[in-house]
Write a structure and sequence with these properties.
The complex is a heterodimer of chains A (about 650) and B (about 210).
Chain A (H helix, E strand, L loop, with lengths): L4 E5 L12 E9 L4 H11 L11 E5 L5 E9 L6 H4 L2 H10 L4 E6 L6 H10 L19 H19 L8 E6 L4 E7 L10 H10 L2 H4 L4 H9 L2 H6 L34 H16 L12 H9 L4 H14 L3 H9 L12 E6 L3 H9 L4 E6 L24 E6 L2 H15 L2 H4 L9 E3 L6 H14 L9 H9 L11 E4 L7 H8 L7 H10 L10 E3 L3 E4 L11 H9 L6 E2 L1 H7 L1 H14 L7 H6 L19 E4 L2 H10 L5
Parallel strand pairs in A: 8-9, 9-10
Antiparallel strand pairs in A: 1-10, 2-4, 2-5, 3-4, 6-7, 6-8, 11-12, 12-13, 14-16
Chain B lengths: L9 H20 L6 E6 L2 E7 L2 H4 L6 H16 L4 H8 L2 E7 L3 H10 L3 E6 L32 E3 L4 H18 L10 H16 L8
Parallel strand pairs in B: 3-4, 4-5
Antiparallel strand pairs in B: 1-2, 1-3
The chains are: A alpha+beta (about 650), B alpha/beta (about 210).
Family (chain A): Belongs to the cytidine and deoxycytidylate deaminase family. ADAT3 subfamily.
GO molecular function (chain A): metal ion binding; tRNA-specific adenosine-34 deaminase activity
GO biological process, one term (chain A): tRNA wobble adenosine to inosine editing
Chain lengths: ~650, ~210
């Protein structure tokens, strides 16, 4: 899949044409000349029982040019005992015309596509009315429209990746009529995403005593000692994944921040809606409900005093100016009457299919179209678990599209998603993808590793954090006997290097070097295979040994970071994956297994002094006490690269 | 739907629903769709909320979301509780709301993990506690091994439903002729749309069963 694609996600789950549900009906041959009479009588007896799309009569050409008519008499019960279920009137009809009824099947639901319909007619003729949607795009996108869809999706993906390596869901609300971004947001279920994170963290460090109740004292001490730049990076490494993927996870995160900004319901869509509502109030403050803070009494009063339009406009203009938005001012005045109702006519772009809460919020806010890049197999409400776009009772319906990314982009995110869900087979994702290969690395191959790290840092390849704690556990489980410390990477390797992606990523202005550049770099540094590291570093973890922590006051961020994602150490998953392409990853994989046995009394000394990293071999079981893996981010990796004193 | 729990006397249930109805009346007074709720923790009302969708122009600002936000702010900012502690507190809360939580709110209640929900009339259009989806029953979603399991909550409907319905009716009747917006008729339709939406709901809710 080397190109962008926009797939409509229909209202109903797609059913293979030949597996459409059917119902039994009682039918009979009739004399053609009796057709009118019988139909008339049938209409009196059971006019509405038969599904409307099913034709009552079917004409069959039999041998000799004769025409045979088959008519549906009534719906038959499930049981084979037909005579019991036949309504009295129908039975009379059968008797009086001496019909010989038989049970046959018709399709229960009207066809939604021509293919379905053709299949249906093999059973019994039905009528087919192609859907008459009034939402643009369901019937296909023009090239121009497609491009703007791709551009906005690209923007959304970029937002999700910002925040150095952390992957969250992102939402961008767009007015497609003018291709203007109305609002955008990332998940804010955790304080760590927003630009406000820094200040929140500062607040935290000022109140170390709060940590005391949750952490052991050494952690508190460590935290207080954190240097400012480290502490800024720390939160970004803590949270894993997009809110909608697992909305219930918030409570399990043992994030001990006291920062005030986490909120289990502030998923990207919700925040974006809030932001668009704020924009609405700012741009069109003319409805007598100015300001977020007006309480009920106020709005009653301002409404009931019903100021004249001129007076109101005057107020509006001052409000708008106060709101430091000049465009708001002019726009507000010029197009008051054009004020949109909520998000009517707007599109929203999401990285992941939204959960039920977000999907319903988008119904409430009257979003017109939803574009998402990745399905959300456990909690998605637009086709994966629920399908809100197909809930007829809702008062608003949007059209839903999945934007399939071109291979070049997809590889990275696909891996990310796969890592998270481990459900490739079930998600209906592109099976044509090359299989991601996991490679474990340890600091034994420090020179090579550092080169690798540098490579990723230099080219700003994405670092994904999508693994739940549980998943980390799983990943590392079988490595338990030899994994000691450090970083584990999962790389994307690709068999065939396609250059198709290159142009695309450039033309889209994506901030990424072409694969060609890596190759050169890799070759220059004598990487094992020039085409090995084609894409994405998925995750990096550090192994933290609990009982040794306090001896390392210089790396406090790690320890405190670790506490929330504490997990007993581990079991293999990684090696399974590795074996899939062992031949290619041989060099690294084999070395890694050996090297993982290396260990120190303190994992952190490894980072400080690469020469020492093999000095100790602790008993495997012993070192697991209180130990755990901690996802780390770019900042930490950079740090590690620095401390390893790259000589590449 | 289950009947009210033993430890909760019917009188109490009515008392709390009455408080929720008061919130709904507040909403009505503010020309909002009249839905209100209160949240109880250990027999004490700890939060109240009512619809603010028109005021905020944010159609997600339902009573339940408002009340949840009140608690989050309180527990987080004032009390400095951690996620774990907040989750623990939510798991001991019950919510009384005049109308069956919509799909969004039901999902939100499941996410924060409240213990139980009592509601008035059913919400035939968007109800997330049995009418359209059943998000309160945890089995409604597949739970993978790596994913925190969706949380269900106990749900009891039909409490003082007729009062809730009559509020919807008042909302509709006070509706547009009396709505103090005569100078901006062109701007009214959005609110009309909301009205109509709930009117339909109201009409269909006449047959709500009464448990109390």
């Amino acid at each position: 899949m080397n190109t962008w694609q926009i797939l409509h996600v229909p209202d109903k789950p797609p059913i293979p044409p030949h597996q459409q549900p059917t119902v039994n009906v009682l039918a009979s041959d009739i004399e053609p000349k009796l057709a009118n009479t019988i139909i008339r009588r049938l209409n009196q007896i059971s006019p509405l029982e038969i599904p409307r799309h099913v034709k009552r009569i079917q004409k069959k050409h039999v041998e000799g040019g004769k025409i045979k008519l088959l008519v549906i008499l009534c719906v038959a019960g499930d049981g084979e005992n037909e005579s019991n279920n036949i309504p009295e009137g129908v039975q009379q009809l059968i008797n009086s015309y001496q019909l010989s009824p038989f049970i046959t099947k018709v399709c229960q639901y009207a066809a939604t596509s021509k293919e379905d319909w053709e299949e249906q007619c093999k059973l019994w003729p039905t009528s087919f009315h192609p859907p008459t949607y009034n939402i643009d795009g369901i019937g296909g996108f023009s090239e121009e429209d497609s491009h703007s869809v791709f551009d906005f999706m690209q923007l959304t993906l970029k937002m999700a990746r910002s925040g150095d390596g952390l992957i969250v869901n992102a939402a961008v609300i767009v007015d497609p009529s003018v291709n203007q971004v109305i609002a955008s947001a990332c998940d804010q279920t955790c304080s760590l995403y927003s630009s406000k994170a820094e200040s929140c963290i500062r607040n935290c460090t000022k109140q170390p005593e709060v940590y005391g109740s949750h952490h052991d004292s050494s952690v508190v001490a460590d935290h207080v000692n954190v240097s400012s730049n480290v502490s800024h990076d720390e939160p970004k490494q803590r949270h894993i994944g997009a809110s909608c993927l697992n909305p219930w996870q918030w409570a399990q995160q043992k994030l001990q921040t006291t920062s005030s900004s986490w909120h289990p319901l502030r998923h990207a869509s919700i925040v974006a809606i809030e932001s668009s509502a704020a924009r609405d109030r700012r741009l069109f403050p003319s409805l007598g409900q100015d300001g977020d803070k007006s309480n009920g009494v106020d709005s009653i009063q301002s409404s009931s005093t019903s100021t004249t339009p001129t007076k109101r406009q005057k107020t509006d203009s001052t409000n708008a100016e106060n709101g430091d938005k000049l465009d708001a001012h002019t726009e507000g005045l010029s197009s008051v009457s054009a004020r949109p109702y909520l998000c009517t006519g707007y599109d929203i772009y999401l990285v992941w299919e939204p959960c039920a809460m977000c999907a319903m919020a988008l119904v409430h806010q009257r979003i017109r179209r939803i574009f998402y890049a990745f399905p959300n197999p456990h909690a998605g409400a637009l086709g994966s678990v629920h399908r809100l776009q197909g809930e007829k009772s809702l008062n608003h319906h949007y059209a839903v599209f999945r934007v399939v990314l071109p291979k070049e982009l997809l590889d990275r995110d696909e891996i990310a998603r796969t890592s998270e869900n481990d459900k490739r087979a079930n998600t209906g994702c592109q099976s044509s993808l090359s299989v991601p290969v996991s490679v474990s690395l340890s600091l034994k191959i420090v020179p090579r590793l550092s080169v690798l790290l540098k490579l990723f840092l230099d080219y700003e390849l994405p670092l994904h954090f999508l693994l739940s704690d549980e998943r980390c556990n799983q990943l590392f489980n079988t490595k338990a006997s030899f994994s000691s410390f450090s970083i584990i990477f999962t790389f994307k390797m690709e068999e065939k290097r396609s250059d198709l992606g290159e142009d695309h990523s450039n033309s889209q202005g994506h901030k990424m070097k072409t694969p060609e550049s890596h190759k050169k770099y890799a070759n220059r540094d004598a990487m094992s295979r020039s085409d090995l590291w084609t894409d994405g570093l998925i995750c990096a973890f550090e192994f933290i040994r609990g009982h040794k922590r306090s001896t390392n006051s210089k790396v406090p961020s790690r320890t405190s970071d670790g506490d929330h994602s504490k997990m007993p150490v581990p079991v293999n998953r990684l090696s399974e994956a590795s074996s899939q392409k062992l031949d290619r990853s041989k060099l690294l994989d084999s070395s890694s297994k050996d090297e993982f046995r290396s260990n120190q009394k303190s994992p952190f000394s490894d980072y400080r002094d690469s020469d020492n990293h093999q000095s100790g071999h602790l008993n495997a079981t012993e070192r697991f006490d209180g130990s755990h893996w901690v996802p780390i981010g770019w900042a930490r990796i950079s740090e590690l690269v620095q401390t390893m004193q790259v000589d590449g | 739907m289950a009947s009210p729990t033993e430890e909760q006397s019917p009188d109490d249930t009515l008392k709390y629903m009455e408080l929720a109805l008061q919130q709904a009346k507040l909403a009505l007074d503010c020309l909002e769709v009249p839905v209100g709720c209160v949240i109880l923790e250990g027999g004490k009302v700890v939060a109240a909320g009512r619809n603010r969708t028109n005021e905020t122009r944010n159609a997600t600002r339902h009573a339940e979301m408002e009340a949840i936000d009140v608690l989050l702010e309180k527990w987080q900012q004032k009390d400095g509780l951690s996620q774990l502690e907040v989750a623990e507190k939510f798991s001991k809360c019950s919510l009384y709301v005049t109308c069956e939580p919509c799909i969004m709110c039901a999902a939100a209640l499941s996410i924060v993990g409240v213990q139980e929900v009592y509601y008035g009339c059913t919400n035939d259009k968007f109800g997330g506690c049995g009418s359209i989806l059943s998000l309160h029953s945890s089995s409604s979603m597949e739970g993978g091994g790596e994913v925190a399991r969706p949380k269900g909550f106990k749900c009891t409907g039909g409490i003082m439903a007729s009062e809730a319905v009559s509020l919807f009716r008042s909302f509709y009747e006070q509706g547009n002729p009396n709505a103090p917006k005569p100078h901006r008729p062109l701007l009214v339709p959005p609110d009309n749309a909301l009205n109509n939406l709930y009117v339909k709901e109201e009409q269909e809710s006449h047959h709500v069963r009464h448990f109390c």
